[in-house]
Amino acid sequence: MTLDTMPPRRPDRLSEDAVRGMRGAGDPVRRSPASRERERRRGPSRSLVAAVVLGCVALMVVDKAGGEASPVDPVRRVVGEVVGPMQAGVNTVVGPAVGLPGALQSNQRLRERVEALEDDNAALTQQLAKAGYDDDRLAQLDGLRALAGDTGYALLPARVIGIGPAAAFSDTVTIDAGSDSGLHPDMTVVAAEGLVGRITAVTGHTATVRLITDRGSTVGGRIGDNGELGFVHGTGGLQDEGTLDIELVNQSVQPKAGQTVLTWGSEGGAPYVSGVPIGTLTRVFESVRETSYRAVIDPAVDFTSLDLVGVVVPSGTHDRVIEADGSARIGGER
Predict the structure, then answer these.
(1) pTM metric for this prediction
(2) Per DSSP, what are the bridge partners of residue 261?
(3) How large is the C-alpha radius of gyration of the chain?
(4) Is 177 in contact with 308 (CB distance < 8 Å)?
(5) Nearest-CA neighbor of 154 among 162, 144, 164?
(6) Number of domains comprising the chain
(7) 14 in a domain, yes or no?
(8) How far is CA 88 from the centre of its chain?
(9) pLDDT digits 0-9 by tens, 60-117
(10) CA end-to-end span of the chain, whole Å?
């Protein structure tokens, strides 16, 4: 018979129940850190929560029953005096940070508004800058209508789109109407103030106009108040004074400064129609040797700022004309 002389093995770790059984009923139980952590996570006990709730309810009832003389009122004032400055300080520190998103959004909206206002301002500035030009063109159109009514000629409006090169030694301009509009050489061209020149060449959509200031230009003129006839010659150049001269047919007649010169007209109205203002006499020179007079004419038209002109056309033959009575007709309708 073999005897087991080995001592019995002791368990490595006893359970809490075993420890509690080994201890007496009154001995405190030493809890492990894990159990203490579990109890901490459970939060306050139910009895503590119930006590706090009952205390709050009782405090509310006492405060309500006391009215203005509530025993809680002094406590409330003290709390307000202590907590109020703290809330104000916190709001001062935290307020800007809390309001930062709203401020950023407001700043973005303000930027968009500023950009929109800048665009509107640019558009209004452009309209204002263009208003003077539009008013001037409207005045020129009204002038053409008045000239058509005064002279009794129908006019086809056109714009000056080019000036002849100075190297060509001729005074010419190009207008934006041509043979497609029924234009052809030897047609009279006028502006609101008076005679401009005559057409010398045309394309489908443009026409070349020789100005009366050109050195090769000669226009039959008539002094308005006495009807004396003469020949108006261009002296060349658009900016020099005295760009037109007139020699009277009757050389014994002495012209006078301030007299108005009109076209006397060509046969069939080509190249010049009659009765269109040419300019005003400004100076008179006497040639003792030839016993004749030469007068300088200030043109009625400012040739350096030509824009809207009118070509004399037969009445009713074009879609966009100013009729002889001054009315405008577009597309066959007045």
Answers:
(1) 0.60
(2) 223, 279
(3) 53
(4) no
(5) 144
(6) 1
(7) no
(8) 50
(9) 776 666 666 666 667 666 666 666 677 677 667 666 666 666 666 677 777 877 888 7
(10) 146
